[in-house]
């Protein structure tokens, strides 16, 4: 399916194998990535256009997700050993900060609260001062994906369930719905203005949903398809200034979209593996994407000769600026 990589984007050195997530520090141009080989690594993106490895930690189990604290001083790695580890780039020695009864699939941080979602069908909140969670929310299914822009938390679950919470009153969801898509949820992202969300699935479609107002504004569209081949939508990331967004898929492509005009802004060259994860930096002028095996075909589909890669794309404003409908 895949050809040789065609991208001219900056390639990050010394990547881990089988990447699970990528993130930028909220305070500076430092990039991080987690992986199935038990690692979380970080790199400095320098003003001269180079990338320098900065630190890394290795824990006891695969890391399914990670995030930064709001001040960029700490990272949190969510693992299959049911633990979440805390560590600092300046002192990369991990310590357990949170625990679940099953593997921890998702981790988010906002307003001095660590939020963790697990296959044990719970979402927990931690204030980092005590070993017990500040609040535990019982979910109807396993947590598959999650996004938090305070005060809105959205959780994508197994069986296509989607729960949305206002964390100022988190005792029950303010919206409990099924995904508008027909198949398993893969990724979810809140609009920057918190008025709705985008959801992606394994069927190569994205749903655009609003929390309130006219349902006619909600729609779904096909993407990451090639003739009769259908590929999973693995990642959705929003440009926080323009409100446009990216999708990335198992076809090895990423694309920028304008949801309001219902149009594609720009599609980029294919890379030679599935794109697993994406992230904009704090200024939204850099876009990181990770090319790695997605394990959709199990062990039989794994090729040890094909290494994982992370690329950084310099974002042109013309690539992400909204356009008038009908362009």
UniProtKB/TrEMBL annotation:
Signal peptide per UniProt: none
InterPro entries given in the database record: WD40/YVTN_repeat-like_dom_sf, WD40_PAC1, WD40_repeat_CS, WD40_repeat_dom_sf, WD40_rpt
WD repeat intervals: 17-53, 97-136
Family matches, as SUPFAM superfamilies: WD40 repeat-like
Source organism superkingdom: Eukaryota
Keywords in alphabetical order: Repeat, WD repeat
PANTHER family referenced in this protein's UniProt entry, alphabetically: MRNA EXPORT FACTOR AND BUB3
Protein name from the UniProt record: WD40 repeat-like protein
Organism: Hirondellea gigas
Lineage start: Eukaryota, Metazoa, Ecdysozoa, Arthropoda, Crustacea
